[in-house]
Amino acid sequence: MFLLLPFDSLVVNLLGISLTVLFTLLLVFIIVPAIFGVSFGIRKVYMKTLLKIFQWATLRIERGAKEKNHPLYKPYVNGIIAKEPTSLEEEIKEIRRSGSGKALDTPEFELSDIFYFCRKGIETIMDDEVTKRFSAEELESWNLLSRTNYNFQYISLRLTVLWGLGMLIRYCFLLPLRIALAFTGISLLVTGTTVVGYLPNGRCKEFLSKHVHLMCYRICVRALTAIITYHDRENRPRNGGICVANHTSPIDVIILASDGYYAMVGQIHGGLMGVIQRAMVKACPHVWFERSEVRDRHLVAKRCDRLTEHVQDKSKLPILIFPEGTCINNTSVMMFKKGSFEIGATVYPVAIKYDPQFGDAFWNSSKYGMVTYLLRMMTSWAIVCSVWYLPPMTRQPEEDAVQFANRVKSAIARQGGLVDLLWDGGLKREKVKDTFKEEQQKLYSKMIVGNHEDRSRS
Amino acid sequence: MTSEAGACPLVGGASLCACARGLAHGGGAGAGWPFAEPPLLLTVSHSQITRLYSRFTSLDKGENGTLSREDFQRIPELAINPLGDRIINAFFPEGEDQVNFRGFMRTLAHFRPIEDNEKSKDQNGPEPLNSRSNKLHCKKYEPSYTIAFRLYDLDKDDKISRDELLQVLRMMVGVNISDEQLGSIADRTIQEADQDGDSAISFAEFVKVLEKVDVEQKMSIRFLH
Predict the structure, then answer these.
(1) Contact at 8 Å (CB) between A239 and A316?
(2) Which pLDDT belongs to residue A73?
(3) Chain B interface, best mutation among A122, A132, A135, A160, by max B CB count within 10 A
(4) Cβ of B181 and A449 within 8 Å?
(5) Neighbouring C-beta atoms of residue A360, cutoff 10 Å
(6) Does the predicted model carry a pTM greater than 0.95?
(7) Cα-atom radius of gyration of chain B, to the nearest Å?
């Protein structure tokens, strides 16, 4: 027995050392290209292999369901009921037309008018455009993650083995690797920016700051295994402009900042985020607001002034802003807040579209905290997205900030293949304003009494 | 959608398929139908039930298997509907604050488009004028009329009085029309519809006014797939 002991510990030691060496080599293999901004294309190959496996998995499930003669649950992303895009006026006129032969031009009340409101109400109960934007998109084919499967009972043995293997790879191999990379990236960012912060202001500091930022963001991109395709890079935001993009998750920042050097705008957080933010601002003029400043409406003007001041200095970096104000699930673009569009700078719109097959990047902040969210991201297969840089836009003299914001929003929605909605992303947490109901009531009153009669005598 | 996709939320452990078939044949009070009214004759397919159940669970923020009025009011497009509150009330039976999936389906089933073979059944049109008030609640032939009538008739006395009509009108127009004007509109409407001279609109009179409107087409909702 005494002879075995040193032999045992030798084996264990050897194993430990070889694993560590392997791990470090892997890290170096990933970090070095990140520093220089090159890529070996391994991630693209990984993505293609995964796609083939997913297609096979979906076919197996369909076969399994057919054998048992059960219809499969298939989520439909385009809604479950047929909706006609007609206005209040048109619909009520239709109902009245079919009901009576009376002249339709005389405004009056009909008992049948109620059908319009009733039906519209029930339609929205069955399927509405807004609430479904605040939860993760449903996938049409399975991607071997238990979190997206709706047809558990049709999985064969082979598929289960494959799923188990996938889980093993994701949790035991990819996750530690990613955590190590993230750790490296963040610590390099904090130390790098702090060191650069001690340098005197000048071209040298700018150069170093830019490259430290880019390098660390690239490492973070690899930490998430994000496979990003950039389109139209000639339209990338320039100094003195504002970059606006649709918001799906905090990862958007990492994705955009790994391809360009931006000044960020946001709220100072506590904890780790706060440490990172404070370090970053030493090297580069980011605009961080205190939490109290964000909440106080009187200080909105002050915020706009700060941004305007930043923008007017043409040598300053482009500001990165997400005008939706909250995370939406990447199937639509919701109302853009007009604040950033009032400043008067050139706006560079960017559309970001994620492919949810490899990992859904949407952060449902009411369901998951930040840490849970990051863990979910790091245990998915990959984050695949496309980024389109749209040509710059400026506010025309005849439009106001809201119209300009809507124009930019439509351009982003069109490019990204997203639904363009006028609803406010804030409806995630707040109730809808009464003004919308009042608009509907106004429209209907016109149909009953017409425009020319005296209305507001009550 | 949870992993219990196979289990039916309407009838305990039975599979969704059996449940859909049961609903199709109007399973009686023995199938656990919670309300005294006779069940509807409706055919809802398996996938439609599944989809609506998925919708029900996504609205159910409290995750306790029932919806409250707040859950409905959280839908922005419903909150801006002038008659939103009344429509929400249609889901909740008398005095209750929660509705389960059965009740949810029951109300929604009023709006499913009628299949061709059923259309031939109600060629005879609405119930005769001298029907008893019990028959008002037999929704076999006029599901949509009844829901619409209920939206007007809040106290459920089977008559739309002038006050009730005024209430609904006020909800639909907000502050844009004066009381006097609204009053005259209500009076005119009752005058036109009222046939037995009681200054109120009964269900039969209501149906008579609307007999030319293709109610089934205007009030039905078509499922995609």
Answers:
(1) yes
(2) 65
(3) A122
(4) yes
(5) 26
(6) no
(7) 19
